[in-house]
Amino acid sequence: MSGYEIGVVLGMALVTFSVRYSFFVLGDRVAFPDWVKRALRYVPVAVLTAITVPMVLLPDGEHWQLDWRNAWLLGAVTSGVMAWRRLPLLAAIGGGMAVYFAWRFLVA
Amino acid sequence: MHQHPHPSRAAECWHGARDSLPMLLGAAPFGLIFGTLALPKGLSAGGALAMSLIVFAGSSQFIALSLVAGKASLFVVILTTLVVNLRHALYSASLLPFVSALNQRWRAMLAFWLTDETYAVVLYRYGEQDASPYKQWYQLGSSLAMYSNWFVWTLLGVLLGASIPSLQHLGLEFAMAATFTGIVIPMLRDRPMVVAALVAAAVALLGRDLPYKLGLMLAALAGVVAGMLMERFAAREVAA
Q: For the whole model, what pTM was predicted?
């Protein structure tokens, strides 16, 4: 490994850990004010939606695919409907994946 | 006395690993591609493995590959990694209430392994109503499963190079979309949450071409702000 490479790996490790540890390091020494607690309730929905929706609507990362041929869309809608009906999470994931793979097989 | 005893530490750990299974499948092709691309992009085998072992952050590892291939300066690589991984600070803040009572060593360990996938999986567990004192073991289980999975697929990619049948055409990445959908949908039970999701989705779509995952970070923040505004608006409506 070159010095450059060691620097890359160690530097990346250091910043990545620092970001992930940024709030965990505080432990119970800090109590968030009420408005921060309320704001944090929206983090899971906001970030997971922001990751998922572009993957599903633009499966190749570049082109919109808003039609019934889109296996990502059909699979995600299946998982979503199953989860909304309060089926167990693993069932919703399995159902979505089954539809996704079946759709790819049938349509492709 | 409890009618239903809490799951043991080992059981929590196993459940965390088990519930991460779709994520393990979803990450596999990426680990493999990362390992396959590492050498052609100018990393050594040792460097690629070390990155998966001590950085352990998929998207920034991929971006680092292209930066290294372009002979970017160390400063640029590190700054880019910081920006790409900023969303993890949100995860860190979001999970803090569930880990704040743990000792420093536990918190450091769990932070080191805090990925998108483990965040999503453990949120679900921490949100469950039972008062198990060992939920951190669930997070540990998910973390160790994701970590060893990422390392093994990186190693296979490095060893086998381009000679392997390409896992990326199997469509395993869809597992992540299915899991995140299954986790988010049940959370959309009130109007502010729905608005947060819609705004986050819209900003993510609009900002999808921004570099360094900035679109994702902006979308997360916009979603949070939108949810807060909607909450305030709804409260005012009730008061009026």
A: 0.88
